[in-house]
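Re: the 255-residue chain
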Amino acid sequence: MVYKITQKQNAATLFEGWQESMIWSCMQGVMGELYADDPQHPTSAMVWLGDFCLFAGETSDELARFQLAHPKRSFMIMIPQTEEWGRMIENCYGERAKKVTRCATKKERDSFDRVALQGMVDRLSPEYSLRMIDRKLFDLCSQIPFSEDFVAQFADYEMYQRYGLGVMIFHDGEPVAGASSYSAFEGGIEIEIDTKAEYRRRGLATVCGAKLILECMDRGWYPSWDAQNPWSLALAEKLGYHFDREYTAYEICPY
């Protein structure tokens, strides 16, 4: 059996030491769901938040296959705590499981240079305008493919206003780039950043990232950054993050 866990402290030790903001989000009850093999004394557990599943504890075929019971989830990113969990995911999903390497950055609160970040923001060309995500933009984000994930994990604007934060760049009245909270936890966010394809390689992602980090600093929040690929890591390092480690993930593709 797979159980949805409400008493999350029962599974906390399984994730102990895993410096992943989505685990914090779930364990704090801000967002995300926790599933396990036993509601009181779990030995296997999974945090599910948005497109991400993170597996901890002993391997469980039933827990690994749990996503299959939700056909509306056409794409997932599964993160194994151990190599044994990785093999379990491969066995369950076969060719649907694409093994990828992601990069974690160090969770350092004092690594950002405010002056340097402000300089990046100030270099935005006058042809563009920068706006914080308010109620109107929150609604707009969900209607635009490149910015859907900026707000997707928040039930409504009130939740976003409490836990989330984001910025967008406009050109001729059209949103073309942005950085926002993919997820949130008490005292911080996990950054999601994207640019419309035709506006890439113009430095807009750098401006958005720098502005969002500055806004987090003003609030005393930590802007967590997990790099999907080398380009994301390079941008993160430009903004002040430092590489921590590579880790394995699996992109689960639709049938």
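The first helix runs from residue 21 to 27.
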